[in-house]
Design a protein that fits this description.
- Helices cover 52% and strands 0% of the residues.
- By secondary structure, the protein is an all-alpha fold.
- Helix 1 packs parallel to helix 12 and helix 5 packs across helix 8.
- The longest helix has 22 residues.
């Protein structure tokens, strides 16, 4: 299946995601963006140096000094085996990432996924790695990789922001921003609801909960109940608990319910709506309401079959409904302020946005293209005009095909270790990225 989005769309998406998620500041300032990107990339490099040394020092390996079987958490051997086990778990999930896409079968892609997940999990040891995190990172790497395809006419400062030398660094930064909101959804430790000290109960009837289960209850028992009481009552009567499917929907940001290309469009809207990703709640409700007629005809097993294998429609349909529901519930839109008005005019006056779309003369668009175009109109995507190209920051010990800087050549992909210090795309790899990605629907 063709990936549907062109190179220009990929570049715009990578840039606006960085702005929406706070990796780059707003309003646009190219020079400031380069400074921000350089600072954050340096921070990631230091984190890699801190966490990727898996080897023990010779003196630490001496069994007369440190017992390899020690269960003391401060023992070098204990820490060593802990890191090795973490790496093993991450690699197992990375190998299962979007198996229908050839893109994720490439070794350099698996290396980037492994590196980023390992560094993040090591830096946030209280949470560590949880299954499903790889499904949040994979689309980010995909989008950034597509944005790396260079255009000779592209201004130098813009090329710095999408340099292939920093694909892994930028993937970590975006993933870190997403996890800043979603990390609590991966905690499995339950907490009991707070009670008034004066309350007197014969036994504990309140079930403990997690942050994600609280969110699922809010989506189901507050939003759905108020926005579609008929559907809510029906689902309650047939005993369909929201956690059965909403845990997966929300935790993976609907990545398992839509194809990768449609997932990117849904994420465009979620990231663009507000920094706290509140549109997720309304997307979930919109997905239920959009198939309400099918749900109301089913018994419990039929309903579960539908929600576990969601009959995904066009992403723009779900986004339109989600935004409409958010407006109906008076959920404030924080970025950008004009989106609700644009959304209301979308179906009535589709031609009004024509002057803002300079790339109209293109081949017929796929459904994914149409979805992406809808989001671009709704959220006001526009290429940032470059200023006079500044000098490109050089990175010691790395080589960027964009800047022509000298240094160590890009590594042979076939010889990359699971935790390679740097990953650079070779010209051949970048050429391959311009080809359609083979995938099943």
């Amino acid at each position: 299946m063709s990936e549907g989005l062109g190179n220009q769309d990929s570049k715009e998406r990578a840039l606006v995601w960085k702005v929406f998620l706070g990796c780059l500041s707003s309003p646009p300032d190219m020079q400031k963006w380069i400074e921000e990107a350089t600072t954050e990339r340096d921070r990631y490099r230091k984190l890699k140096d801190k966490h990727l040394d898996l080897e023990l020092e010779p003196e630490e390996m001496d069994p007369n000094v440190n017992n390899p079987l020690s269960r003391n958490e401060n023992s070098p051997w204990f820490q060593h085996f802990k890191r090795e086990n973490l790496l093993k778990i991450i690699k197992q999930d990375v190998e299962r990432t979007y198996p229908e896409y050839d893109f994720f079968e490439q070794e350099w892609v698996a290396t980037i996924l492994t590196n980023v997940l390992f560094v993040y999990s090591s830096e946030h040891s209280e949470l560590s790695y949880k299954q499903g995190m790889h499904e949040l990172l994979a689309p980010i790497v995909y989008v950034l990789a597509k944005a790396q395809i260079e255009s000779p006419s592209e201004a130098q400062d813009s090329r710095v922001l999408s340099s292939s030398a920093f694909l892994e660094h930028d993937a970590f930064l975006l993933f870190e921003k997403v996890m800043a909101v979603t990390s609590s959804w991966f905690y499995t430790t339950v907490e009991k609801p707070e009670k008034d000290e004066d309350d007197f109960n014969f036994g504990d009837t309140e079930e403990p909960t997690t942050p994600l289960s609280k969110k699922c209850n809010y989506i189901y028992n507050v939003l759905l109940q108020s926005l579609d009481p008929t559907l809510y009552t029906f689902l309650c009567n047939i005993d369909v608990e929201p956690q059965l499917y909403l845990l997966r929907w929300v935790r993976c940001l609907f990545g398992r319910e839509f194809s990768l290309e449609k997932t990117l469009v849904v994420w465009d809207a979620i990231f663009g709506y507000d920094p706290e990703l509140k549109l997720i709640d309304f997307v979930a409700v919109a997905m239920l309401i959009d198939i309400r007629s099918q749900l109301l005809e089913q018994d419990r097993n039929g309903v579960l079959a539908l929600v576990f294998k969601y009959p995904a429609l066009e992403a723009s349909t779900i986004i339109t409904k989600a935004l409409s529901l958010a407006i109906k519930k008076n959920a404030p839109l924080t970025k950008p302020p004009s989106v609700p008005q644009q959304q209301q005019q979308q179906t009535q006056q589709p031609q009004q946005q024509q002057p803002q779309q300079p790339q109209q003369q293109q081949p017929p668009k796929s459904a994914v293209d149409e979805d992406a175009g809808f989001v671009k109109k709704a959220f006001g995507w526009a290429p940032v005009k470059s200023k006079t190209p500044p000098s490109t920051p050089s990175t010691p010990g790395t080589s960027s095909p964009l800047t022509g800087s000298t240094g160590a050549p890009p590594p042979n992909v076939s010889s990359l270790s699971p935790l390679s210090t740097e990953v650079h795309l070779t010209p051949q790899q970048m050429k391959e990225l311009q080809l359609d990605v083979s995938a099943s629907s």
